[in-house]
Amino acid sequence: MNVGFVGLGVMGQPMALNLARAGTPLVVWNRTPGRCAPLRAAGAEVASSPAEVFGRAATVFLMLADEAATDTVLGRGTPDFAARVTGRTVVHMGTTSAEYSGSLQDDVRAAGGRYVEAPVSGSRVPAEQGELVGMLAGDEDAVAAVRPLLAPMCRETFGCGPVPGALLMKFSVNLFLITLVTGLAEAFHFADRNGLDQGLLRDVLDAGPMASAVSRVKGPKLLARDFGVQAAATNVLENNRLIAEAARKAGLASPLLDVCHSLFQETVAQGHGDQDMVAVLRALEARTDGDSVPVRLSVPVPPHERVNG
Questions:
Q1: Running DSSP on this structure, what letter comes out for residue 115?
Q2: Which of 96, 201, 260, 293 has a CB 3.0–4.6 Å from the CB of 269, allowing a cystine?
Q3: How far is residue 297 from each of residues 67, 69, 266, 294, 301, measured CA to CA in Å?
């Protein structure tokens, strides 16, 4: 049977295109039909509804924005849910809370389906290049069946045990990413306001031991003030919130993450949510200039972790 793919956004569209170009018999659906045109041109079939995707595919990848969108596509909480997932493998690739994923697995299993968590690390460019890193969690047989299908999208995949191990691993990776890019933006801000040549800063960083694939992509964007989306600030803020909530539930301190959380909330509040995550630079500039927008963290910070500013 076909493989299904639902959710053709900034990440989903290039991921699905790589599947289609690899010869995977693919049937796709997206809420905005125009996003399906490149998939049709690449040989994929375009379904008229999510129900049609599930009706024609044994394995369905879901790359959706949030929990509500995922429930809607699955028909969760309605009689349609069982009809869609029975005998199917549902592959949840979006970033949601670990608790949500665990409960979704329970519901899929109860309806006679199989469930795999498969979040990925990487932004739009690695997605286009098929260079994402996949994290997999679920029953071993289901994971083993899904892993080969990820090859056109991911240069490497890692087993993370039972659900929600893959999402918690994704949170760990994204915690580092968020703090890394925020630190890079602050370094460029510091150099700029001290009258330094930011191009020279980029060159020094690229030549030094802190250079990484991330810094080599985000550094030039900061230098050029290029806020074109690779990973939108709004999405980064949502990831930050999910990680912070997971930290609170585990009783963990996350002071660096909490500072970033405030900065990304300010970035979005200033109207830059649809720009790349390097737009956190704008929140730093606003703080320096005394123009920051007061925000309240959506995840409370315990008193012993609070920092000034």
A1: E
A2: 293
A3: 21, 24, 10, 10, 8
- Helix (H), strand (E) at residue 232: none
Which residues on adjacent β-strands are paired with residue 134? 120, 157
Whose tokens are 């969690």? That residue is: 137
Measured CA to CA in angstroms, residue 256 lies from 85, 95, 101, 109, 233 at distances of 40, 21, 26, 38, 17
What would the pLDDT profile of 195-206 be if each residue is shown by its tens digit? 999 999 999 999
**Rounded distance, CA 234 to CA 269, Å?**
10
List of long-range contacts for 70-77, beta carbons under 8 Å, 24+ apart = 70/94, 70/96, 70/104, 73/6, 73/7, 74/50, 74/104, 75/50, 75/51, 76/104, 76/107
From first CA to last CA, the distance across the chain in angstroms is 55
Q: Which two tokens stand for residue 305?
A: 């972790």
Residues β-bridged to residue 3:
26, 59
Q: pLDDT digit string (tens) for 71-94? A: 999 999 999 999 999 999 999 999
| CA distance linking residue 82 with residue 87, whole number of Å | 9
| Distant-in-sequence, close-in-space partners of 86: CB < 8 Å, separation ≥ 6 | 111, 112, 113
Pairing of the two strands 114-117 and 132-138: antiparallel
Amino acid sitting at position 223: L
